[in-house]
Amino acid sequence: MTTSAIRRQMKNIVNNYSEAEIKVREATSNDPWGPSSSLMTEIADLTYNVVAFSEIMSMIWKRLNDHGKNWRHVYKALTLLDYMIKTGSERVAQQCKENIFAIQTLKDFQYIDRDGKDQGINVREKSKQLVTLLKDDERLKSERTQALKTKERMAQVATGVGSNNQISFGRGSSQPNLSTSYSEHEYGKSGGSPASYHGSTSPRASSELEQARPQTSGEEELQLQLALAMSREAAEQLSVQNVTRAQRNAIKALKTNRNIVIKPADKGGAIVIQNRMDYCKEAYRQLDNQEHYRRLPANPTKEHTHQLNKLIKTFDPDLQNILRTLIPRTPRVGDFYCLPKIHKANTPGRPIVSGNGTLCENLSGYIEGILKPIVLGTPSFCRDTTDFLQKLSTHGPVEPGTLLTTMDVSALYTSIPHDDGIAATASILNTNNSQSPDAILQLIRFILDHNVFTFNNQFFTQTHGTAMGTKFAPQYANIFMHKFEQDFFTAQDLQPTLYTASPRTISQCSTFPASTLTTSKRPSPMDRPCEYTGSAQTRRNAMDTYRR
To answer: Which of 170, 200, 451, 510 has the smallest set of CB atoms within 10 Å of its CB?
Structure first.
């Protein structure tokens, strides 16, 4: 087992990832090889499960949001997405079409490694291929049909030809030679069939091999990917663990030590080991805030399940059928934990509620699927730094005296009043003529009002804002900020020439002097404005946004 694999396993435990999420993380890791064929097939098959589909796609979008030295995360996520589009549930392609903007932005992906090699080109080309495929319905349908047939044939041949249930490539080798597997040298100039290179191969096996030969360039590429993945599987079976017994014992001791807490840092990807007493002290500092949280005497999940079923019965029959499939049979209570902010004084914690297996987990994922396409269409939406730089490049020259400002919303998720957040969502749903807006709003209200979790064997409920970890929370926060921005700028005399916003960070270009900022402000139309921290500079690098 490699060091990166050990680190990945620890993160899986720390973040309480589901089985489907763990498989996607494995398939899209930073290891310098592709995912195994069996793993890609497992993930593609899991997309037919409603719950697993939501988990898989959420992790895929997270991987696609990586950058820099994690370019393999992005490239492998695109490769896996390509495989799932062709062999998985049709919902994969549907969601990709709805979020095609997220894939299109990767055509500008940049990363030059330490050797000066442009690794970003792999991501750029793959994203272009995927976008082209998603925009051509006829080609997509044809490639899905062909890929599924190829997958079936490869599975049949893999179990019926060669030794040890492996396909034989080249001259009797059990592993593929990519330069000759399907070359003219092997199949043309020799004047014989592929079976002529396998003296013991039966006529039936020869026939099956002929059937498995690629019929199109796309099928050939898919077969090569599968062959590479299978060769990786074979190598893994022969690999020797490079972790000593002492190291394994040390990992086990850390995992079972009840005096410490191991969590990933809020930023930077570091692993933090904290004294449990200090960790609990910070958690209770937040949970004892009666404006946001309230303790419960017992587990209310059973009563909440009854209330949710009662609510669903008020909707139209088609929606009822969808929602009933999203309710788990035996829901569990969420888990509260904190991610240490080691970049700040006194190491405060970012509150997270793990919703895996909870009553509202799948319901929240369903709402996320409705809200996300709307969020991507808002004028100020900014996906990441690359997207921001692209917006700057299309904005044109920045005039002298322009202020480049950034603002950060403090504790946004826990600061959104329920009524204001739902009102903002209602406004944008009506603007976009969304189906069943009243039902969507009632479901959002239910999720917000029934966010129950445990910490240290005690039950709590969140009474203000939404929890990080709730699947629809990022889209909900984006919509709230979109409404806040609209109302705020409507009340201003001076307007920025460029304004972009991610869920918590706002960047704008203003063509007025800094001295006029204080005199031009009017009260915000919102009853409870958010709290901002920010700065204004005249140089772009003040925002730490530059091409790497």
So the answer is: 200
Q: Which residue has the higher pLDDT, 179 or 240?
A: 240
Alpha-helical segments (H) within 166-216 = 184-187, 203-212
Strand order in the sheet with 452-455: 293-296, 458-462, 452-455, 334-340, 349-354
How confident is residue 384, by pLDDT bands cut at 50, 70 and 90? confident
**Domain extent for 106:** 3-158+173-238
Q: Residue 52 burial by CB count (10 A; 0-12/13-18/19+): exposed, middle or buried?
A: buried
Residues 150, 21 share a domain:
yes
> What's the total number of domains in the chain?
2
Same domain, 361 and 280: yes
Percentage of the chain modeled with pLDDT above 70: 74
Stretch 5-17: mean pLDDT, rounded? 74
Q: Is residue 514 part of a domain?
A: no
Kindly state the percentage of the chain with pLDDT values over 90.
28
Return the exposure string of 92-104: e unless at least 16 CB atoms fall within 10 Å of the residue's CB, then b.
Answer: bbebbeebbebbb
438 and 315 in a common domain: yes
Say which DSSP state 409 is in: E
Q: Are residues 10 and 100 in the same domain?
A: yes
How does the average pLDDT of the chain come out, rounded? 77
CB atoms closer than 10 angstroms to residue 247:
14
For 329-342, letters b (16+ CB in 10 Å) and e give eebbbbbbbbbbbe
Sheet holding 505-510, edge to edge: 498-501, 505-510, 403-409, 532-537
Cα–Cα dist 504/384, whole Å: 12
Q: Say if CB 220 and CB 178 are below 8 A apart.
A: no
- Are residues 111 and 221 both part of a single domain? yes
Domain end position, chosen among 458, 477, 496? 477
pLDDT digits (tens, 9 = 90+) for 203-236: 444 454 455 455 555 555 555 555 555 555 554 5
| Residue 192, CA distances (Å) to 22, 185, 186, 407 in order | 45, 11, 9, 70
pLDDT by residue (tens digit) across 76-132?
Answer: 999 999 999 999 999 999 889 888 878 888 888 888 887 778 888 889 999 999 999
Read off the CATH number of the domain in which 220 is found: 1.25.40.90
Residues 229 and 268 grouped into a single domain: no
Q: How far apart are CA 480 and CA 477, in angstroms?
A: 5
Same domain, yes or no: 7 and 124: yes
pTM over 0.70: no
Strand extents, DSSP E, 372-434: 403-409
CB neighbour list of residue 491: distance below 8 Å, 6 or more residues apart? 522, 523, 524, 525
Last residue of a domain, one of 238, 254, 279: 238
Place of tokens 């997958």: 151
The DSSP result for 493-521, as a single string, is: SS--SEEEE-SSEEEEEE-S-THHHHHH-
The three-point CA angle 191-169-164 to 5° equals 135
Within a 10 A sphere around the Cβ of 313, how many other Cβ atoms?
Answer: 11
